[in-house]
Specification:
The complex is a heterodimer of chains A (about 110) and B (about 110). Chain A is mainly beta and about 110 residues long. Helix content of chain A is about 0%, strand content about 55%. The model of chain A has no long low-confidence stretch (mean pLDDT about 95). Chain B has no helices and 11 strands. In chain B, the strands form 2 sheets. In chain B, strands 2, 4, 5, 6, 9, 10 and 11 form a 7-stranded mixed sheet that branches. A 4-stranded antiparallel sheet of chain B has the order 1-3-8-7, with no helix packed on it. Classes of the chains: A mainly beta (about 110), B mainly beta (about 110). The interface of A and B includes residues 6, 49, 88 and 97 of A.
Chain lengths: ~110, ~110
């Protein structure tokens, strides 16, 4: 079993829809949670960063962490065609290395 | 452009050949990471440098792989005797010591024929 599970999709939504992306994890030592966006043939780009449980909002993006359920989510409001990309959840423990453990990524297509 | 750069962007090689990739991190980022990403998967951690010291290596990094960061600036990743299973995107990321954000480069896509 992988430490981080993520539905690979693909997920197709119409422009303006609310998108919900999710990951579950098994390692209770994970403390820091991130969402990266990756366009085709590009490197990942950090979208959201959260520490411990709770919500964090940044523009159209909201990240949620529920450590009791080992479940994290990313919500995208008023989705745009430019949001079409692969969304990767990532997390790490509090160790000194800061190495990230990624999910498989969810491919999102926002149809105009 | 002051982001992380990687060279080459694409590499096609024959099985058994050696290849070397280069990563130039953002200036003054003392931490540098290598990840590998295969099709349909998320990046997997390979190794980590703090300045010139290689502090952690994943079990994914077999004896055919070696990474260096000789002066604590750029880094190289060499794969000897390449195998078809080495075909992947090799990503480099860097970060300063005081933040949690890793900045990724565009990656080097390796195809082993």
């Amino acid at each position: 079993q992988k430490e981080v599970e993520q539905d690979p999709g693909p997920l197709s939504v119409p422009e303006g829809a609310i998108v919900s992306l999710n990951c579950t994890y098994s390692n209770s030592a994970f403390q820091y949670f991130m969402w990266y966006r990756q366009y085709s043939r590009k490197g990942p780009e950090l979208l959201m960063y959260t520490y411990s449980s709770g919500n964090k909002e940044d523009g159209r993006f909201t990240a949620q962490v529920d450590k009791s359920s080992k479940y994290i989510s990313l919500f995208i409001r008023d989705s745009q065609p430019s949001d079409s990309a692969t969304y990767l959840c990532a997390m790490r423990t509090g160790g000194a290395t800061n190495k990230l453990i990624f999910g498989t990524g969810t491919l999102l297509a926002v149809q105009p | 452009d002051t982001g992380v750069s990687q060279d080459p962007r694409h590499k096609i090689t024959k099985r058994g050949q050696n290849v070397t990739f280069r990563c130039d991190p953002i200036s003054e980022h003392n931490r540098l990471y290598w990840y590998r990403q295969t099709l349909g998967q998320g990046p997997e951690f390979l190794t980590y440098f703090q300045n010139e010291a290689q502090l952690e290596k994943s079990r994914l990094l077999s004896d055919r792989f070696s990474a260096e960061r000789p002066k604590g600036s750029f880094s190289t990743l060499e794969i000897q005797r390449t195998e078809q299973g080495d075909s992947a995107m090799y990503l480099c990321a860097s970060k300063p010591g005081f933040t949690d954000t890793q900045y990724f480069g565009p990656g080097t896509r390796l195809t082993v024929l």
